[in-house]
Each structure stands twice: as C-alpha cells, then as structure tokens.
Amino acid sequence: MNVDSFRLRFLMEQLRQRSDDQTVQDVLKVIGIRNPENPIEAVDEAQFIRVACDVLKDSLFGIKAGLNFRHSTTLVGYVAKYSRSLEMAIRNARRINGAVFPAYDYLLTVSGNAASFELSAIDAQLSKFHRHREMLMFGALSYLRELTQTGFYPLEMRFDHLVGGREADIRKMAGCPVMFGAEKLEMILPLSALDIPVPTYEPALRDHLIAYGERLVADQPNQNPSLRARVEGILVSGLPDRLVPAEEVASDIGMSPRTMARRLKDEGLTFRSIVDDLRLDLGKTYLKSGISVTEVAFLLDYADTAGFSTAFKRWTGVSPRQFAHATE
User: Where in the numbering of this chain does the HTH araC/xylS-type domain appear (predicted)?
Assistant: First the structure.
C-alpha cells in the first residue's frame, strides 16, 4: 500500500542525527528504497524503524523520533493547521487522510468524560510492527501539542502489544499512565483538550484544502491489502488467545479454504509459511523487548516453551535465549 514518504524522510533525519549519512543510506539499502522522495510502501516505513532500532541498539528510537515529530508539510498537516480546535483538527484531517497515509485510519470518539483517539491499521500486516505503532502514537501526541502550542498530557496511552522491560522507560517518556496489552491502540484525552484552540485557524484555507483533499481521495486507486497482509492481520488479531486456523481465516476473508490455498500458491506462499514467518517475526520482536522465552511461547500460542524453542532454532539456527542475549 503506497503512502507519502514525508515521514520516512523525517525518520531518516532522526537517524542521521544519531549516526551519520552512511548509516542512513545503509538502512535504506537493506529495505530496498532507492529514492526516498517518491511514494513508498507503508511497510517500508515500518521496516525503516525496525532496522534503525537494530543499528542503534535502541528499541526506543521510534518513540524518541515520534516525540520530535512537530511539523507536517502534507495536505493532512495543513488541514489540521487551519482548523479551529484540536477536535476539529483531528476530524478534518481524517476526512482526507486517505490521500496521504491510507495504510492507517484514526477515529475520535467521545464517551462520558473522556475522548478516545484510536489508530487502526488498514494494511493489516502493519500490526506486527510494534516499534512503528509506538512512533505513530507518540508522533500524533507530539504533533497535536505543537499544533495547539500547548503541552497537554493524555489521561492514558494504550498499546495492544507488550514491551517487556521497556515499560518504565516508556511511561517516563509519555509522562502519563501507559497500558500495554490493551485491546486497542489508542490515546485517552480529557474532554477539555478537545476545545484547545489552534492558533493558526484559517477557515477559508481549511475549506479549500478539504475540498481539494476529498477530490484526491475520490480519485485514489483502490489499494486493497495483499492476500498475505489480510491473512497476517487476522492471525495477529487472534493472538495471544489462539492461532486462528486456516479454515476460519479463509471464511473471514470471504473465500473457501481451497480458493485461499490456491491463491496463496499463485504468490509462492502457503498458509503454514505465513504462520511460521509471522511467529518468527513476532518472536524476534518480543525477545528484543526482553520478554521471557516462556511468555513469548504463550503469546505465539505454542503448547509449551520447548515447541517454540525447537521451531525458533530451526528457523534461525540459534535458540531463543541465544538470540535474546545477542541483541541485549
């Protein structure tokens, strides 16, 4: 799913400030990005953060970068900039978000004495990139603060993944309560925050840009996620409770198991290979976060630790403990 590369270029600069230009170029080469000025695949942005974390040996790189995200020169950014209040900045920007970053949607809902700013992946395979999701949420917070020229704090931030030994550091950086392993990726805001005015409010410019953006969204080609991405999204949503079986995945997608198997085969894939790749990907992510091997086995729906350890060593040539030790 193609997205604007503005945030990738911002992330490149963040990495450059902590290393050098050659390191940035090396990371781009690993991902396969030749020209960061052109639109990119959303997954490439997520991969950039993952590789940068590895290169810097800093799993908090995405959050640190997000907290430095204060300006957006995209159409979405300008619509927010010319809106009346924080609430309307979020609502107006969402109307045209599909023209800039269609891989994620966001929703603002008000209930009781609080509001929820929720992020959800349209390209479902992005759900497995935890460091990217952290960057998006902290980036949204930082940008909304800059937009309103205030230093407001959320009531709580919620992430639908676990972070192991990083919890205390993340809570300190957030400056507010943070929940991990939540049902949604969301930020809970006090109702008073919604009324914070945006000092750059310009209704005529806002209306013009929204109209232009809505035309762009209407003219956008349909970017349906790949079959693999749809399968991965269903599998991720089922964990850690259970590994959704192939028959149920096919039903959720709207195919028979035989049709799904045939279409995956046409792409050189099998359901089992997707499951194995996903478990390996998430397993590495959890181990890098300092989560114990026993808990990782549970999170990936293995019957026991031995089953996970055997599979991990078959995939990587090293045991989970050896891998975790090497990435400390």
Answer: 229-326
